[in-house]
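Lab notebook, bench 4. We co-purified these components, and the gel suggests they stay together. Before we commit to crystallization screens, I want a quick structural picture of the whole thing.
Request: model the full complex, all chains together.
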Amino acid sequence: MLKLVDSKLKRYKLLKVESLVLDCTNFSEFKFDLAMELRPDETIILNLENVNFVDSSGLGALISGLKAIGNPDHLILCGLNEQIVELLELTCLDKVFKTTKDYQAALEEVGAR
Amino acid sequence: MVELSCHLPANFKSINTLRELLKYIGEETDTKLEKYSGIELALIEIFTNIVKHSGVVADDLIDVRLRSDSRELEIKFIDTGEKFLPTILETVMPHMTTKKIELLPESGFGVPLVVSLSDSVRYERKDEKNFTTLIFVLDED
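Here is the predicted assembly.
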């Protein structure tokens, strides 16, 4: 359910979630797929523009990914719709996850070339 | 006033049907329920909670009843699972800290989210069944 979009960047990896939802039906698959993509000292930009719904299981999977990465500066969520933004705000995780409007803004955030 | 009821199998495959029920009742009451994104999340969180934690098995049926006019939406879940603790609705949102991400909880958000997103949540145990009722007050257009 994760697609590697850009493999040419050094020290950054853009992954796009291809599913329309991240919830109780597929959070385990997401966790596994993300774990397979992690590399030491590499920043993940996770594009969620296809995702129109995240529930608490999906949220837990995102937290799990962040913990596996180990550094909140090395995971950037982009392309979040209103529902996901609201979910992060309700759970105060908007203070934990780095987020940008879109992929280009994420690249600017990290100064990637 | 529009009322719908449906017996759904207690598994995650029923979630899409839940969405369809919500969409249908919105159409029948001419209410743009999609602008209330929290309703969908609360509905799914309660259903998921019943499936995961009440002890029901996949073939058990959960009675879902929706009732709405343009001002209020009531959604009731009736299941035959184990009794929930009375304090369940007092569960607080897990505490987040930015300093030690390794300590971040990965679960426990469901019920606090439902309480935050709903205008009223009620639970009672009656006749060996759990009755969970969510009420949403809808803005007048």
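Chain A touches chain B through 27 residues (CB under 8 Å). Worth comparing against the SEC data before the next meeting. Helices of chain A lie at 27-37, 56-69, 82-90, 103-110.
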